[in-house]
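Aggregate trends can hide what the representation actually does to any particular protein. The sequence in question and its structure tokens are set out directly beneath this paragraph.
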Amino acid sequence: MNEALFPPEFIEGAFRMGFRAAADRRAPFAGVRRSAHPGESLDFHGHDEYRPGDDIRRMDWNVFRRCKKLAVRRFRDFPRGCCRIVLDTSRSIHCEEARVVSAFRAAAALGCAILANAEALELAFPGTGCAHWYRNGKADVPRFLADLALRREAPFSHAMEYSGGGLCWVVSDFLEADLITLERKLERAGAFSVVRIFSASEEYPDFSRETRLVDCEYGYSVNIAPDRSIAERYRVARMRFHGILDAHALRSGMRHYALPAESGASDILNRLFPEGLV
């Protein structure tokens, strides 16, 4: 395990969040799909002949009175499905080392909390053709962290095109060519929680002096002379950007997490798990 990227105390903290989540919450999205296997819901599935060891509280005495046979009720199962983490590894994420570290640590924290709950997990790197599956709970954590530590760079972000289905978290900066493109992609995307990585210079640029804006995806750059009107237009655009992401999270019944690239490991845990919930 890359202990510089994933400190042991950081991983242990994610484990604790996962176990607490399992104890404290109802499983979100339970009941989205029906299983052919019997389970613990209230949806009646049928009868089985009684066998030693069956729960006698499920005995159907009406069947016994009619047929003089012992039968137990079976109920349908509604599993939660697989959890998915989609990690954006486009050029805009790689433009600063701090952004890369925060994005990978956010994915690691979520994945370790999920695996601590013994749930199935998919880790996807859109645009690279790489996806990995983990079905053995906490035993898969070393392999998960090893797969995560192998940095892959995609030329462009395809994170939102890969989302949807089950519980999904998209870790990205969500930077697109323009806000209209972002809105259209989110309209087509499935439900997911937004985990947004940003740097202080991106969120609060200083337009009181000459500033150079760089498009990391395409390699374009432009110098901006000091201008109060530009600062105001940028502020308005950022507010709209935040509103678009907030609206998608609300529409999905999910959350919008904002993670500064300068965050330390403990701060990432506190921001992702404010109530100990995944």
About this structure: The two ends are 23 Å apart (CA to CA).
